[in-house]
Amino acid sequence: RLGIAPDDREVVRERLLEGILAADLLVVSGGVSVGAHDHVKDVFQEIGSLDLWRVAIQPGKPLAYGSAPRPDGGYCLLFGLPGNPVSSFVTFELFVRPVLRRLRGEAGDEGRQVVRARLAEPVHKSAGRRAFIRVRLEPDPQHAGGLLARLAGAQGSHVLSALAQADGLAIIPEAGTDAPAGTEVEVIRLDIEVA
Predict the structure, then answer these.
(1) Do the beta carbons of residue 151 and residue 166 sit within 8 Å?
(2) DSSP letters along 105-166, please?
């Protein structure tokens, strides 16, 4: 743990340089957007490389990924996650967890079970972005053995209560802005981890 860094480019740089000496992978939360005090992606470029910035997902668009060389000849992977807690959680699940599993030699990519379910209510999302909606899964009364995905609460990237109540992330594809009730979707289960 490198602690909380203030919105100061030099302090962020010092903390990251300290971290790459001790770790194979660093995860930073916050400071990756486009504000005047968001220095993480620029420091990634300065100390190594910025290989990815921004992804077309909701929540979690401002994601940074890169790597930095270490004095021993190795390198450290760098992940800059959004500062909003739900965005940070979602991007960790989608991008960091699979890398950690691979580095530990574990089989599979995500370590989470994916199931199919029908939306219990309509969902609205931004066009051109894949949405990860926090849902509660329950038996589908209209389809024996099926699952129904019900919204776990408000879907803002700052709403921790919906994340705390969710047992899945319903995946709404990039195309369009609305998914009506009854739409069949894939759901990443948060309550079951696959070995």
Answers:
(1) no
(2) T-SSSS-EEEEEEEESS-EE--TTSEEEEEEEEEE-TTSTT-EEEEE-S---TT-HHHHHH-
Q: Which amino acid is at 187?
A: V
User: How far is residue 182's CA from residue 142's CA, in Å, rounded to a whole number?
Assistant: 10
Residue 35 CA: distances (Å) to CA of 25, 48, 129, 146, 156: 25, 21, 21, 44, 20
- Burial bucket for residue 23 (CB in 10 Å: 0-12, 13-18, 19+): middle
Span 124-149, pLDDT tens digits? 998 999 999 999 999 999 999 999 99
Quick one: 15 exposed, middle or buried, by C-beta within 10 A (0-12, 13-18, 19+)?
middle
Please state the pTM of the whole predicted model. 0.90
CB-CB neighbours of 59 under 10 Å = 25
